[in-house]
Design goal:
2 copies of one chain form a homodimer.
Chain A lengths: L4 E6 L3 H12 L4 E7 L2 H11 L3 E5 L7 H11 L4 E6 L6 H8 L3 E4 L4 H12 L4 E2 L1 H11 L11 H10 L5 H8 L3 H15 L4 H10 L8
Parallel strand pairs in A: 1-2, 1-3, 3-4, 4-5, 5-6
Helix pairs in contact in A: 2-3, 7-9, 8-9, 9-10
Chain B binds a DNA duplex (30 and 30 nucleotides) through α7 and α9.
Chain lengths: 214, 214
DNA sequence: CCGCGCCTCCCCCGCGCGGGGGATTGAGAA
DNA sequence: TTCTCAATCCCCCGCGCGGGGGAGGCGCGG
């Protein structure tokens, strides 16, 4: 067997901390190495204790979980972070997830489930509560609002407009005159109601007409 | 108690179908109402049987799971779909998820976990295998934005560069001179090695320095 | 047949912008 | 203290680009 998983618990409610610690200590391969009552203290504890994973409450005095997670990400990008919250799931989860946390669970989670979640996260996977996952899925699905008023040729030009090429260079690539490209570009800008090339490309990407190849 | 959950199993391997059916029938609140050996047959079965959820294998002859899921989505958007696959997780999962399935599990899943997944999905939640979830998360937080060579002020200017505002207008907004903004912009372009404002913004978005607010 | 949309090409104008210089201040590191 | 660097401001130049105009050919549907 490998070393036990070192866990730091950060929550402003002592009863929650104690409860979590008790549950987790029942597992032989889990080791609660520290507790903290807010983000500021939790951050210090995390940086000195170097746990494998930090269970962090979202709402706390002094420094909230998101702020702490952000700071922790910068200081120690490898440390896993699992966020603990109530049961509300609003759009702020995306801000949270964009911080780069690996786990997101609710406080009413089943102990066995939490243990599994911790293992998953420490193993480099990610664990989100299904309700949160649903929201995330909904975000990547919304997909293709097919607002295509552009002709095929204009779509092609639009693709090229997302490149560093000047209209003259695009014209060479397409084997037409620069004036033709500029003419298409003008029509595109007008149709999309965008003031310039940069905004047109940005707008196109937002409405999924273009995909960022990267 | 409510009625049992009606399940349709679609897999080209009889042994998998039988195995799944056997495991699921052990649960009193689960009811396997049908089996099918490929997407085409599965689609017909789904539309006639109206199960609560369809467990669908990804790779099948005649019609694969993704095609079936897509067709099923159009015919009966409320029916839940859980995709079953091997253990490979490549970028095609995003095509799959964009179809709008609610579940994505591997065939080597623990029976108890599968049961929980089915319940979660039928309850309107979503269930993804942690490895898949990790990939999805990586998509919305492609994470580790280490490439921050920009100063805070430059980041601020970069944000504004993603707007239709001219440098002069940005300067007014920030309460500084146009020359200052242009100076920052020049430094940004040089640091990012981008030829112009449009490419800088695009590039910034690709490396997630900027997020498309939409 | 005739109109209409699409693609092609052309001209002019003015300004936003990229790229090249440089200067000053203040904060923080060496 | 000295030196670096972020942040501020200034000048000049040339070109890419947005916006305005117009025109001809071609295919397609009424």
């Amino acid at each position: 067997m490998t070393d036990p998983i070192r866990i730091l618990i950060v929550d402003d409610h002592a009863v929650v901390r104690k409860g979590l610690a008790m549950v987790l200590r029942l597992e032989p391969d889990l080791d609660v190495v520290g507790e903290a009552e807010n983000g500021r203290v939790g951050l210090e504890a995390a940086l000195s204790l170097h746990p494998d994973i930090a269970l962090v409450d979202l709402v706390m005095p002094e420094m909230d979980g998101q702020t702490m997670a952000l700071a922790l990400r910068k200081s120690d990008p490898k440390m896993k972070i699992m966020m603990l919250t109530g049961t509300e799931v609003d759009d702020r989860v995306f801000d949270l997830l964009s911080v780069g946390i690996e786990g997101y669970v609710f406080k009413n989670i089943e102990p066995a489930e939490l243990v599994r979640a911790i293992h998953a996260v420490v193993n480099g996977e990610a664990y989100l509560h299904p309700a949160v996952m649903k929201k995330v899925l909904g975000k990547i699905q919304p997909q293709s609002a097919p607002f295509v008023l552009l002709t095929p040729r204009e779509m092609e030009i639009l693709d090229w407009m997302a490149t560093p090429n000047t209209y003259k260079q695009i014209a060479v690539q397409l084997g037409v005159s620069e004036e033709t490209v500029r003419s298409h570009a003008k029509n595109i800008l007008e149709k999309m109601k965008q003031p310039n090339r940069a905004q047109a490309v940005l707008s196109a990407m937002k409405m999924k007409l273009l995909k960022l190849n990267g």
